[in-house]
Fold this protein.
Amino acid sequence: MERDSLTREKLIVLDLGGHGSHIAARQIRRLKVYCEIFPFTTPLHRLQAARPRGVIMTGRVNQAQRGAIARCAAGLLACGIPILALGSGLHWLVEELGGKIQAMGADDPPTIYGTEFDVEAVMEPGSQAILENFAHGICGCQPTWTMESFVEMSIKDIRAEVGEQPVVCGLSGGVDSTVAAALVYRAIGNQLTTIFVDHGFMRKHEVEEVTKVFRDRFGDNFIAVDARERFLQKVKGVTDPEEKRKRIGTEFIRVFEEEAARLGKIEYLVQGTLYPDVVESGEGTALVKSHHNVGGLPEDMSLELLEPLRWLFKDEVREVATELGLPDELVWRQPFPGPGLAVRIIGEITLEKIRILQEADYILREEIARAGLERDIWQYFVVLSDTKTVGVHEQQRTYGYMVGIRAVNSIDGMTASWVHLSHALLETVSHRIMDEVKAINRVVYDISSKPPSTIEWE
Ligand code: XMP
């Protein structure tokens, strides 16, 4: 997709390792300056060809990599591209190239500047000013990267790319696929058919809620497929998390293929791929979990992919959603994994366990909403363990499930810290769950951050 007009004035974040590059890039985007992440292995000529107004280096390099990084930095400076080295771990580079630590003047010739703080601190107001000075002052970037202009540009690009062809989009109920579909719909209207596959692992009332939103928005161009029974059959007796994910992912594609075939010859498939997915799939990262996105790429379907959000971070997607007039309940929906509750039920999945988890999870959501915390927490949910424990109810022995409450804050899901929910709130939730969901007689609170844990339990 062509983004040239909007992204001509860009900065590059050169990722020297760690998670910091995402944080830096997002902060730059918040200054309405377009910014892309490149791995440190990118050859100098490719960095130069991207014609950035400036480069921000984040992370740490080991001794062996120093020479290559210093040569790359010198090459950029020689082309008149200023550099900001974030964090004391890169002071050696600033010193080696005769740059400055935190003294930036717009009249300076292109040079390398170093900050005293590490990339995590760029969220703080003082450090924001330094990024702002670098982006606007030193590099002269104008604040043109807005979601209003992004929508306008995307509509033109989608129309140019798709022409008169029919397009399908798999909807999960999550923000990303919905926004992608809404954007494409705005561009080409009835040429788009949206498909929502109910795999039976959605949260309580979720199917009705998302179906209503989609019907209102897409009208006759929306198809809902009830595939609960076939998904349940596919995961019957499966306890291994990866196997569950794979089976659900494959089944999704099968259902999707069947629906697409029913519609006739389809040329394009819309996916809600976001920029972090694009960056992460670039370099050889180790597999932690096979993430399954709804409408994931069916290998043997000869469909062209349309990924209108592939340049955006999550917070930008939410802005686009608002720009497109999507309702707040949908825009602020917490991230929900493609396989749904299936990866929150440890061990074998049964209909009974799905119901138990739906009820417990609903209570947690109600109480978080009552406490006004919905927008303050990245993700909160209940996990149904396969451990049963002994309890007592009205002087009778019980033998019921143990559930875990999980609440985490995160910027992009790659790292996360557990949320210090108040004891009073935890007490209310625990009390209600055990009182209202009789199959559960123990509630624990998960105080693990990522890493070393992951957000979902499976
Ligand atoms: P983990 O559990 O890997 O999750 O720490 C990071 C973020 O990704 C979400 N997640 C998924 N999203 N398909 C998705 O679309 C998946 O299969 C999947 N698994 C995890 C998770 O909820 C968290 O926000």
Notes: The pocket of xanthosine-5'-monophosphate is lined by residues 245, 288-289, 291-293, 335, 337-339, 379, 413, 450, 454-456 (CB under 6 Å). Residues 241-262 form the longest helix (22 residues). The chain has a mean pLDDT of 90. The chain has 16 helices and 15 strands.
